[in-house]
Design a protein that fits this description.
By secondary structure, the protein is α+β, with helices and mostly antiparallel strands. Strands 1, 2, 3, 4, 5, 6, 7, 8 and 9 form a nine-stranded antiparallel β-sheet that branches. A two-stranded antiparallel sheet has the order 10-11. It starts with 10 loop residues before the first helix and ends in a 15-residue tail after the last helix. The N terminus is likely disordered.
């Protein structure tokens, strides 16, 4: 039983681990993420000059004074600051805040700002504020530590006006009781600035983590998100601008020394069509340079390497998350904190060629117009900003475009963000699939049924016939085999947004059909790298020969993130499947994988990957060291315990493996995956009664994971409790009607008692 085989985690501890596994970036607060030829990049930007360096904002401002004026005071400009009377918004005049039994005090003396709060060992200590982090609607404060870490306090300042509930201290986890030994405590890795936040709050950041010494030496060119964070290193452009006799007339971005060319909208016009919707003069899919410059810091993604340079495809460095369960609802609407890009990439606006700067000024970050006027740039008010369209009195809250098409969620307690999917309300899906509904989000006290009936009267029932993927995604997430045709069709449909297709690829193994492997193999050659990247991530669901055949072609993909994911899936594969050129490609990709994991060596999951590589190479002692290091540095990281215990079990030491799993339960007592592994181990030791109790608890905590119920039922039967076993398996089959293993197990128990099936055989 290895960690990657575990099902969706449940409970608080599982949610914490799931959140920390992802590398994130985005808004104003601390959070938890190709080979290009010379000339123009695939996204239309200028290829970075090899000699270009970071010149600094002042070098840009001398020529770009208007842009610099708008940039001043923007959220990018104020993303991170040194503490001062003007930058610190919180009350440091002796204010106190009590949380989880600790009263923290905020003071100022000798020009410095201090907080007295619980430190790494839980005792009250005085900490000096090193940096101010973010500005609105909340502001956090970073504390420096001797090992180069900067940690973000869990107590933040609500920067909103007092009338809006602001001007107060508040805790980011108000419904928890986060103390010093909790993974969410401000001194723990989850709140570490260097790894979680820094890349997107400063310019030209270099994390500088020393994996051996476990220390940081983080550097940056500019403290905030300055010009070159988006435009790339500017020294070559500055040198061009300073030439006394520059070439007159049109000049290409490369000739100007630009690292990134953000000319997506240059020469583009929008003409209003009879439908009342504007049409872009140039195809939107021709270039995505502008969106890709924004995407790394406004998305859920994995950062695979350091030093991404704007102007290069973002898949060079980042692997974007798809619309996974827990991040997005089945209809694609944001659920967890996903930072805009994943929503926008699904939208018809994105497909039509709308870019970020069509709606937002890229320097001030303000909207280009107020209220519905920003939408009216492309949607004729005479057609859309009328009661006949939105069904509300003009000027009321319901008449706002964003109320229906950009419903909001609130994150970090006070940060209200709008979904950028621009989807049309579907209260009928809220009824049938239990999704959120933008109508009842405003019409408090009403039901989705009421909203759907109102739309029937207002629009006629034809509105229910609009194409959607929510039903297919919802069924696939539940493991329904009946969803397979729809999921395969979505994955294969080039008319669908790439992120939707990639999500369907992710779901293919859950709805496995005779065509699944054929679909995956075909999509491994898809022209869209987001789809190919999804294929790389599902290779593990295939049989070894198929995995090698399909994954082998991805080992030489133009994008490093895809090569790395393919290498991770194929590492340790038998030479009979990966010989000759494929074997050489695998070794090259594994070098890239190791470099990526060493860059991310401050993250617990890097130990998991490097341990897996050591196992694949037959170096079990090194694998055990990696898992042990992860446990020592991140005691809350449950997967390391499970993988270590599995190696101990394989070595014949069941007692030590049990002890390791029980250590894991001390930090995550309700973790169903650990309980499942422990239950199987107890059965192997001949302690069937204890195994039944532990497996019952795992099944109870994670009813969505059929494997746990299967093991519980078989363990009961092994104890001679056939009637109880049938009852457990019957209830599980009701929850998972398409699960063949459950159905076969239940059928095998239909007759009189016979030789039981060992639960330890369940994978």
């Amino acid at each position: 039983m290895r960690w990657p085989e575990f099902a969706v985690r449940r409970g608080r501890a599982g949610a914490v681990v799931a959140a920390l596994i992802l590398l994130l970036s985005g808004s104003t607060a601390c959070r938890q993420d190709a080979r290009t030829a010379a000339g123009e990049s695939p996204q239309g930007g200028a290829t970075p000059a090899a000699s270009a360096s970071y010149a600094g904002r002042q070098a840009c401002a001398s020529c770009h004074q208007e842009q610099d004026r708008r940039f001043g005071g923007s959220h990018h400009d104020l993303a991170m600051q040194e503490p001062s009377a003007t930058s610190v918004l919180g009350n440091f005049n002796g204010a106190t805040f009590t949380y989880a039994g600790t009263t923290s005090r905020f003071t100022r003396r000798d020009g410095q700002y201090f907080v007295r709060t619980d430190g790494p060992d839980g005792s009250l200590q005085d900490f000096s504020v090193a940096y101010v982090f973010g500005v609105y609607p909340l502001q956090q404060y970073l504390i420096g530590f001797p090992d180069g870490r900067y940690q973000a306090l869990g107590i933040a300042w609500d920067a909103r006006p007092k009338a809006a509930g602001g001007q107060r201290w508040f805790h980011l986890y108000p419904d928890e009781r986060v103390t010093h030994d909790d993974p969410l405590h401000w001194t723990q890795f989850s709140q570490n600035w260097n790894a979680q936040c820094a890349t997107c709050h400063s310019t030209n950041l270099r994390k500088g983590f020393d994996r051996i010494a476990n220390r940081y030496a983080t550097t940056w060119s500019e403290l905030d998100v300055s010009c070159e964070a988006c435009h790339g290193p500017g020294s070559s452009h500055v040198a061009w601008a300073q030439q006394p006799s520059r070439t007159a007339g049109p000049v290409s971005p490369a000739e100007m020394g630009l690292t990134a060319s953000l000319r997506d909208r240059q020469g583009v016009s929008w003409s209003m069509q009879p439908t009342g919707i504007a049409h872009r003069s140039m195809p939107g899919a021709a270039t995505r340079a502008e969106v890709e410059v924004c995407a790394p810091c406004h998305s859920r993604r994995v950062e695979r390497a350091e030093g991404h340079v704007p102007g290069t495809p973002w898949l060079t460095t980042y692997r974007p998350s798809v619309l996974s369960d827990g991040l997005y609802r089945a209809d694609g609407r944001m659920q967890d904190e996903v930072y805009v890009y994943g929503s926008f990439a699904q939208s018809r606006m994105y497909a039509a060629g709308v870019t970020c700067a069509d709606c937002h000024d890229p320097h001030s970050l303000t909207l280009r117009a107020e209220g519905n006027a920003v939408c009216a740039q492309c949607h004729a008010p005479a057609t859309f900003d009328i009661k006949a369209h939105h069904g509300h009195e003009p000027g009321t809250a319901g008449a706002s475009c964003v109320a229906c098409h950009m419903p909001s969620e609130t994150y970090m307690g006070v940060d209200r963000r709008h979904d950028h999917g621009f989807r049309i309300p579907r209260p009928d899906l809220a009824v049938s699939l239990g999704l959120r509904d933008s109508c009842t989000q405003c019409h408090d006290g009403r039901t989705p049924q009421w909203a759907a009936a109102a739309l029937d009267r207002w629009r006629s029932p034809r509105w229910r016939q609009r194409p959607e993927f929510a039903a297919a995604f919802s069924a696939a997430r539940a493991g329904r085999a009946s969803a397979a045709p729809a999921i395969e069709a979505l994955a294969s449909d080039p008319a669908q947004p790439a992120i939707v297709r990639a999500t369907a690829v992710e779901l293919l193994p859950r709805t496995a059909s005779p065509q699944t492997e054929t679909v995956i193999e075909r999509l491994a050659a898809d022209p869209d790298p987001v789809v190919r990247g999804a294929v790389a991530q599902v290779l593990g669901a295939l049989a070894p020969a198929s995995r090698a055949r399909i994954g082998g072609r991805l080992l030489d993909d133009p994008f490093a993130t895809i090569r790395i994911d393919a290498a991770q899936a194929l590492a340790g594969e038998s030479a009979q499947w990966l010989s000759g050129p494929l074997g050489s490609s695998l070794q090259r990709a594994i070098v890239e994988l190791r470099a990526s994991e060493n860059f991310n060596g401050d993250r617990p999951e890097s130990h998991l990957t490097l341990g897996g590589l050591a196992e694949a190479a037959g170096d079990v002692p090194q694998a055990m060291r990696e898992y042990g290091d992860a446990i020592n540095r991140f005691p809350w990281f449950v997967p390391a315990y499970v993988n270590l215990a599995d190696l101990q079990r394989q070595g014949g030491d069941e007692a030590t493996a049990e002890a390791t799993l029980r250590r894991a339960l001390k930090v995550a007592p309700d973790d169903p995956g650990v309980l499942y592994a422990l239950g199987l181990g107890l059965y192997r030791q001949g302690r069937g009664g204890d195994a039944v109790d532990v497996l019952a608890r795992a099944s109870l905590l994670a009813p969505a994971t059929s494997r746990y119920a299967l093991a519980h039922g078989l363990a009961l039967d092994a104890q001679g409790r056939r009637a109880d076993a049938r009852a457990v398996l019957g209830r599980a089959l009701q929850r998972h009607p398409d699960d063949a293993e459950l159905r076969e197990a239940l059928a095998s128990l239909a007759g009189p008692s016979s030789t039981p099936t060992a639960p330890a055989q369940v994978r």
